[in-house]
């Protein structure tokens, strides 16, 4: 989605996509660094987030922002998160895929908000 929005913002010219890293083009609103980058980016800004919509800044709702909500297939989220948890050290050992799936379906697993929030992602030009 970030690539598509970046190309739209640049009228189809891929040079910006090739020369500016993802985290600078569409910073994550829920991180302090991402928030600071987003505020410093030229308008129209591209912003990414996994935050629930009710946690967005109030100014967002009074703006002319365009929002794109991307939803992932839960099976894709499960497999992707399983492999990520196996290599990302702050996560506890996910066990087997079957064990991980049971925890995933329960909404638990000790892996932070990923279980609850990784099905959807807000992005948009703000």
β-strand amount: 5-15%
Number of helical stretches of at least 4 residues: 8
Helix content: 40-55%
What is the arithmetic mean of pLDDT?
A: 81
Which blocks of ≥5 consecutive residues have pLDDT under 50?
110-126
Number of domains: 2
Order of helices and strands: HHHHEHEHHHE
Strand count: 3
> Which value, in Å, is the CA radius of gyration?
16 Å
Main-sheet strand order equals 1-3-2
Category by helix and strand content: alpha+beta
GO molecular function: sulfotransferase activity
Enzyme class: transferase
Keywords: Transferase
InterPro entries: P-loop_NTPase, Sulfotransferase_dom
Explain the overall architecture.
Belongs to the sulfotransferase 1 family. This is Sulfotransferase. It is an enzyme of class 2 (transferase). The chain has 126 residues and is α+β, with helices and mostly antiparallel strands. The protein has two domains: 62 residues, no CATH class; 33 residues, no CATH class. It has a three-stranded antiparallel beta sheet with strand order 1-3-2, covered by helices on one side. The radius of gyration is 16 Å and the shape is globular. The two termini are 15 Å apart. The C terminus is likely disordered.
Name its key features:
single chain, 126 residues, alpha+beta, 2 domains, 13% strand
List the helices and strands and how they pair.
Layout (H helix, E strand, L loop, with lengths): L1 H8 L5 H5 L2 H4 L6 H9 L5 E4 L8 H4 L4 E6 L2 H14 L9 H10 L7 H4 L2 E6 L1
Antiparallel strand pairs: 1-3, 2-3
Pfam family, one: Sulfotransfer_1
GO molecular function: sulfotransferase activity
EC number: 2.8.2.-
